[in-house]
Structures are given as C-alpha cells and as structure tokens.
Amino acid sequence: xxxxxxxxxxxxxxxxxxxxxxxxxxxxxxxxxxxxxxxxxxxxxxxxxxxxxxxxxxxxxxxxxxxxxxxxxxxxxxxxxxxxxxxxxxxxxxxxxxxxxxxxxxxxxxxxxxxxxxxxxxxxxxxxxxxxxxxxxxxxxxxxxxxxxxxxxxxxxxxxxxxxxxxxxxxxxxxxxxxxxxxxxxxxxx
Length: 190
Description:
Elements: E1 5-9, E2 16-17, E3 24-25, E4 27-31, E5 37-39, E6 51-54, H1 60-90, H2 95-113, E7 126-130, H3 132-157, H4 172-181
Antiparallel strand pairs: 1-4, 1-7, 2-3, 4-5, 6-7
C-alpha cells in the first residue's frame, strides 16, 4: 500500500458516509494498488492536516505543440475554403447549380449560427497524498482488519474437545467397563 491516492466521484445514489465527519459523500479516495479506498467530503481535501494535492508535472512543450497543430489545422481549413470559393466563381454554372449552391450556403450559415452543445469536459482525476498520521492510521486499520479476519477463520477451523461422558470423579477405566456392560455396573460376571 502506497501513500498515493486518486480522487474519484461516484453517483449520488451510491454515496456513503465520509471517513471524517460521517456525512454522505460521493467522492472516493482510492490508492494506487486499489486495495484501500474510503469516502471523503471534498472540503476535507483542502485541509493540510488531512491530505495534500499532488499535481502531475505540466508538459508545456506538449501543450504548445498541440496548440500549434490546432492553429495549422484552422489555417488549412481557411485556405481550403478560399480556394473552393475561387474555383466556384471561375466556373460557369447553370441556374440549377447556383440554386443548389445557395441552398447549401444557407444550410452552412444556419449550422454556423446554431452552435452545437459541447460535451462537458470529464473532470480529470486528482492525485493526493495523505498526511503521515492519517496514512499510518489507515495502514494500522488495514492490518487490524486482516488480523481479525485471520482470527475468525482460525476460530472456525478450531476443534474443541468433546463433552465428557462419565460422572465427575470416575476414572476412564470405570467408564469403559460401564460401556461394555451396556450401561449397567451390576450383574457383570468376570
């Protein structure tokens, strides 16, 4: 188990009690190896005595390269449209083609005016490290839980001695003799 936790969000109907304040929470901190998780209120994550956010290193070169790529694509589209417009003006078209072209332009203008709803950005997972005392508490709880499970299994497999059959104070030999007689001590011939 490592002190490297990721914040995830679950559905509101799956919310459970917060680890700290026991209020319903839909936010879960889960460790890197998926062995430890607990529900937590988002407000507790800002407390430096509980957890610290660990931001991944920002790759500025990759961001700049992606931005340049988008700009080049936009310029490409712009030049392509200008060239198509110039070609359309040069060629002689009959009246029907012009009507179709006008209808297409109207459709394009309508689509441009009508903005399509952009999909909501998926919230990226946030990384946290727990405060050392909180982390050691989590580790201790996991160890105690594992030990309790082990004890419970051990108790299930334990065999206890049987209940004594004879009277208190009788010796085993006397008990064996009674068994051979069929339970009666008198009338036995030797």
